[in-house]
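Subject: design request, 241 residues
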């Protein structure tokens, strides 16, 4: 059953600094793997923010990228503030490496993403990247995908019907709302329905079902996309898988 925060998340909230330190350590290690001339995808979120900071330091030390594409206006503004020229995915043939955060990752490097609502662009950037590295603190690592609501981006024109369909399927849907209680609207003008079913019964089957549901634009199951995960742990160690 889904609860608002796992034990680890509650502990992490109580020691926010520690979690941020872990995020920064994973991010810095990822920044060290970026090579000169790389066409780089840069994701979204608080861990990626540390990655962009570290990338800025590498730029100041002489790193030159072939291209940079990003998945949110916030990351774009941060990159541009550091002097990077940011391209649109449509203007780049192929990316070499994308570095992004994740909301959950399992031992097969399958994951849940989209907590920040940028899942559609994140998945498009990821699948057009030769390599994908995720940077996470250890609270994101799970045995079975779950413990985090699965975001599904849906077209407004049939959002009500899709919501009802999810309810009938027992997927425990909820429309995402903003802090002021309005319906959350994505960069592309769509809604997000978060599925609170936990744990996810069969991620591949669920992904196939969502992929074939009319009205679904994209979903946050990222299966077989990530090839490297950098996990920063509370004990100060870093695992690369
Ligand atoms: C945004 C994402 C983020 O990568 C994910 O939510 C992780 O964020 P954070 O690094 O802030 O924990 O998928 O859509």
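Subject: RE: design request

Done. Sequence follows.
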């Amino acid at each position: 059953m889904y609860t608002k925060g796992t034990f680890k998340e509650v502990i992490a909230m109580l020691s926010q600094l520690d979690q941020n330190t872990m995020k920064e350590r994973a991010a810095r290690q990822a920044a060290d793997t970026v090579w000169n001339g790389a066409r780089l995808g840069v994701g979204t979120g608080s861990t990626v923010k540390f990655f962009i900071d570290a990338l800025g330091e590498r730029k100041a030390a002489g790193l030159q990228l072939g291209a940079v594409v990003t998945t949110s206006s916030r990351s774009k503004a941060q990159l541009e503030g550091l002097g990077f020229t940011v391209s649109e995915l449509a203007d780049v043939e192929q990316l070499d490496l994308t570095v992004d955060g994740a909301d959950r990752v399992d031992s097969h490097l399958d994951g849940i993403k989209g907590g920040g609502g940028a899942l559609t662009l994140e998945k498009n950037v990821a699948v057009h990247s030769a390599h994908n590295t995720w940077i996470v603190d250890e609270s994101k690592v799970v045995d079975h995908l779950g413990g985090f609501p699965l975001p599904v981006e849906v077209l407004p024109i049939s959002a009500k019907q899709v919501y009802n369909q999810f309810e009938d399927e027992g997927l425990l849907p909820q429309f995402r709302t903003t802090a002021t209680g309005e319906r959350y609207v994505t960069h592309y003008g769509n809604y997000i329905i978060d599925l609170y079913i936990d744990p996810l019964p069969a991620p591949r089957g669920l992904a196939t079902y969502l992929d074939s549901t009319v009205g679904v634009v994209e979903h946050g199951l990222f299966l077989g996309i990530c090839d490297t995960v950098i996990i920063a742990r509370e004990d100060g160690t870093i695992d690369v898988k």
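The two ends are 28 Å apart (CA to CA).
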